[in-house]
Amino acid sequence: MDAFKKKLALLDSRIQKGDLEMFPNLHNCLTSADVNRKELLCIITLHLKELAENFDRCFPPHEDPRIRNLRINNPFTEDVHSCNRNSCEKECLIELCCDTTLLSEYKMQPLAQF
């Protein structure tokens, strides 16, 4: 989902600059036909923005299930203060986050092996 949102933003920024490299058929159409280029690019930009808004409405960022589980992928980036854990668990998490030997092992191994 993140990649799709970032691609939409990239496409939008390129369209606003008039860069149509990623749309070769559109580029060919605009160069060969009598079309109001500025108006068409505005329509495409509007469409991309609405697409991103609809995507956010269907997949709200604050409801992303990965956010609650990021510590599973990388326990070294966990924000101890915002996690919903008891005091003992938070202390253990602090120890884990600060363990540089473990961090080194984490970086050298695939997640499944770690």
| Number of spatially distinct domains | 2
Q: What Rg, in angstroms, do the CA atoms define?
A: 22 Å
Helical proportion, percent range? 55-70%
Indicate the proportion of strand residues.
under 5%
Tally of DSSP helical segments: 7
What value does the average pLDDT take? 80
Q: What would the principal axes of the Cα set say about the shape? A: elongated
- The helix-strand sequence is HHHHHHH
Structural class, from secondary structure content? mainly alpha
What gap, in angstroms, lies between the N and C termini? 26 Å
Beta strand count: 0
Unreliable stretches covering 5 or more consecutive residues = none
- Main sheet characteristics: none
What are the key terms here?
114 residues, mainly alpha, 2 domains, elongated
Q: Can you put this structure into words, describing what you see?
A:
By secondary structure, this protein is mostly helical. The protein has two domains: 62 residues; 42 residues. 66% of the residues lie in helices and 0% in strands. It is built from seven helices and no strands. Helix 1 runs antiparallel to helix 3. The longest helix is centred in the middle third of the chain and has 22 residues. It is elongated and about 70 Å long. The mean pLDDT is 80.
Q: Can you summarize this structure?
A:
This protein is mainly alpha-helical. 66% of the residues lie in helices and 0% in strands.
